[in-house]
Design a protein that fits this description.
With 426 residues, this protein is α/β, with parallel strands linked by helices. The protein has 3 domains: 190 residues, ATPase, nucleotide binding domain (Nucleotidyltransferase, domain 5, 2-Layer Sandwich), CATH 3.30.420; 76 residues, 2-Layer Sandwich (Dna Ligase, domain 1); 158 residues, ATPase, nucleotide binding domain (Nucleotidyltransferase, domain 5). It contains 14 helices and 21 strands. Helix 1 crosses helix 4 and helix 5 packs across helix 12.
């Protein structure tokens, strides 16, 4: 649901950039909006990707290593795009984001509802105690109640006495914003906006009918698995499970006593969730930890490797099922599941998830991109594509620049001065 026109400095012809900071990779994309007959599409001009360093399970653990990864990813994207960038949209890891369901109301005294009334309801959410000391990232109206009429999606133009709004307010610790901002400043980049990772994935992969009727996108990232649920076109729930693709890789490395880099290679080349006969004797050579090329290399069957992968995937979706069963949102959001993220490329995962969770399941890839399709039209690019989509959408739920400014103005001036100093000296 979008109420406000996004007031942004970027004009439709300008270039946008996004950086997706993940546990396993950092990717940067440079794009521009292209108006077609029916919609605005995202044309990818340049793309760069680096192995992520300094991030563990969605948390920043080493700013210097993260800075190196960002600089290299940005440089590659700039080289392929043939232009430099000055600012970017950044994702926030879902484990660091909390969704609050808040209800606000205002008296109308019989007046016709306009944008000012909606704006007042949205701004009032910032005064609630459990969001007051956090950095607000998104304020998303879900439904409105006008007097006794419930379930209104857009009340503008209506007349009544009292208007209530149900809002999804997404917050994150101010410290994380400061650390990311500090890192971006050291990379000589400004920040156009922050977007919750799971929300971004939904923006790039879901279609309008899905978000209207009810859908949950499950993004299986490197360090965590994110669930973002939508109904009536609005985000109504966002949560995460602290397991992802890196846990599968480490399982393989531990069980087979092979280096992590080799475990990742084995997962990507031979990983499958499709049924394999235990009698399938096709073997895979397994390089061993600490051994050089001159030593004999043991082997395992593809069946054995698939069982290692399956065990962790089944565990992840057992937790997903428990989370769904205990949530207090409308269960219509779970009638359709969209899988995305790098792990969703495992063959057979769609069938496994359908069996575990029921309902319809599909694999989600960015659906509004063209240009550099080989690198970007894949599930692992969903978050980065969503950041770009957020940046160019004609309509947004709230002017994020105002939110960020309002939150940072309550912070100490020293932070702003520090960022300015770092830009000048690094």
């Amino acid at each position: 649901m979008a109420i406000f026109q996004k007031q942004k400095k970027n004009q439709r012809s300008e270039v946008l950039a996004a950086i997706d900071i993940g546990t396993s990779k950092v990717c940067c994309a440079i794009a521009r909006p292209i108006q077609t007959a029916n919609k605005t599409q995202v044309q990818i001009l340049g793309f760069g990707q680096q192995e992520s360093k300094g991030v563990r399970n969605g948390a920043i653990v080493d700013l210097e290593q993260l800075e190196d990864a960002i600089v290299n990813a940005v440089h590659t994207a700039e080289q392929s795009a043939g232009r430099n960038i000055r600012s970017v949209f950044i994702n926030l890891p879902t484990p660091a984001v909390q969704l609050h369901r808040i209800t606000t109301k205002t008296s109308l005294s019989g007046h016709t509802i306009n944008d000012q009334h909606i704006h007042k309801l949205i701004k009032a959410s910032r005064d609630f105690e459990h969001v007051r000391d956090k950095q607000i990232i998104h304020i998303i109206p879900t439904t409105y109640t006008l007097d006794e009429a419930k379930g209104i999606l857009d009340p503008r133009g209506m007349v009544g006495e009292t208007l209530q709004a149900k809002l999804s307010v997404l917050t994150t610790p101010t410290g994380l914003i400061r650390n990311i901002s500090s890192c971006m400043a050291r990379c000589h980049l400004d920040i156009d906006g922050f977007v919750a990772g799971g929300y971004a994935s939904g923006l790039s992969t879901l279609v309008e009918d899905e978000t209207s009727l009810g859908v949950t996108i499950i993004d299986i990232g490197g360090g965590s698995t994110t669930l973002a649920s939508f109904i009536d076109g609005a985000l109504i729930d966002l949560t995460s499970i602290p397991m992802g693709g890196e846990h599968i890789t480490r399982d393989i490395a531990r069980v087979l006593a092979t280096p992590i880099s080799q475990a990742e290679r084995l997962k990507n080349l031979y990983g499958t969730l499709l049924p394999i006969s235990e009698n399938d004797r096709e073997s895979i050579m397994i390089p061993q930890l600490g051994e050089n090329a001159g030593h004999a290399t043991p082997s395992v069957s593809k069946f054995y490797l698939s069982e290692i992968i399956r065990a962790r995937i089944e565990e992840i979706f057992e937790y997903v099922k428990k989370r769904m069963n205990t949530s207090n949102i409308d269960k219509l959001a779970y009638q359709r599941i969209v899988l995305t993220g790098g792990v969703s490329q495992l063959s057979g995962i769609r069938e496994l998830v359908s069996d575990k969770l029921g309902g319809q399941v599909r694999i989600g890839v960015p659906n509004n991109l063209f240009g550099d399709a080989d690198s970007t039209n894949v599930p692992s690019f969903s978050t980065c594509a969503g950041l770009l989509q957020f940046g160019i959408d004609d309509q947004q739920n709230y002017n994020q620049a105002e939110l960020i400014q309002a939150n940072l103005s309550a912070s100490n001036n020293i932070f702003t001065k520090t960022i300015s100093w770092m830009r000048e000296n690094f």
